[in-house]
């Protein structure tokens, strides 16, 4: 089957461990795009840090950001919010109190902005790596804005403990908590995931799930890979992510996206 849409996770999948898009992968994506295939970046990143990668690919179009919580269309006129799964800040107050008490770094995101209450050198380097420029405020709850994502950033052993405690206490309530990377925990609307966002986008484009190929590397990619007709995990994925995939490609450091597109699309 000729795939009409390719959904690509960014960090750990499309980019290598140096956060570089290789020339070979870029050329392959441009080649398959030229055949009429939609390329959709599906990432935990915000639109502002996803757009430069889309532009580096020489493309414009729709980006699924914040792990599916905000879908944004980008073209020469700017960025337009297509869909969002937002919730009030009041719903994360118990988690905010916990993070402040334990000294764990956090940020809160609207579709287009990120807010933090403090920042150190370690966090500055992380945000720089992901092309993020967060806004520093005294108290995020004073913003009184609906948000799409609440994120913790800490060492894996810290987040392992947080994950166990929050699951045990159901501290996230009716929201959804996911581990989006070794160093990140995201809390979002229960409806927000890459699979639901991709499903909505595919319906608007009149593309069937069987005409979609999705490539990812982590637990936040599972719904997207399950929805697609062909869900592919890169070789650097955790074992249970690879077990859930339909196929395995090379790692992100070995141009796994390039390999998969050549094998299944070109």
From TrEMBL:
Species this chain originates from: Paenibacillus sedimenti
InterPro entries hit by this protein: Cof, HAD-like_sf, HAD-SF_hydro_IIB, HAD_sf
Lineage, top-rank taxon, reads: Bacteria
Q: What is this protein called?
A: HAD family phosphatase
* SUPFAM superfamilies registered for this protein in UniProt: HAD-like
- Provide the GO MF annotations for this entry: magnesium ion binding; phosphatase activity
What's an example GO cellular component term for this entry? cytosol
């Amino acid at each position: 089957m000729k795939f009409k849409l390719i959904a690509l996770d960014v960090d750990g999948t499309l980019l290598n461990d140096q956060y570089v898009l290789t020339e070979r992968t870029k050329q392959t994506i441009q080649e398959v795009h030229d055949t009429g295939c939609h390329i959709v970046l599906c990432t935990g990143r915000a639109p502002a840090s996803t757009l430069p990668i889309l532009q580096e690919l020489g493309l414009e179009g729709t980006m699924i950001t914040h792990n599916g919580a905000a879908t944004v269309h980008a073209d020469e006129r700017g960025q337009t919010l297509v869909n969002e799964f937002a919730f009030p800040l009041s719903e994360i107050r118990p988690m905010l109190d916990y993070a402040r008490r334990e000294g764990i770094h956090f940020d809160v995101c609207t579709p287009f902005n990120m807010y933090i209450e403090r920042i150190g050198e370690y966090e500055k380097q992380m945000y720089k790596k992901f092309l993020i420029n967060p806004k520093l405020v005294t108290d995020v709850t004073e913003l009184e804005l609906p948000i799409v994502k609440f994120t913790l950033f800490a060492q894996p052993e810290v987040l392992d403990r947080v994950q166990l405690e929050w699951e045990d206490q159901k501290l996230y309530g009716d929201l959804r908590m996911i581990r989006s990377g070794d160093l990140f925990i995201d809390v979002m609307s229960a409806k927000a995931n890459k699979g639901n966002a991709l499903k909505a986008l595919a319906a608007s484009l009149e593309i069937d799930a069987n005409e979609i190929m999705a490539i990812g590397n982590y637990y936040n990619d599972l719904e997207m890979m399950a929805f697609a007709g062909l869900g592919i995990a890169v070789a650097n994925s955790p074992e249970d992510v690879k077990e859930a995939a339909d196929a395995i490609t090379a790692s992100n450091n070995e141009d796994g996206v390039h390999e998969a597109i050549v094998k299944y699309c070109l």
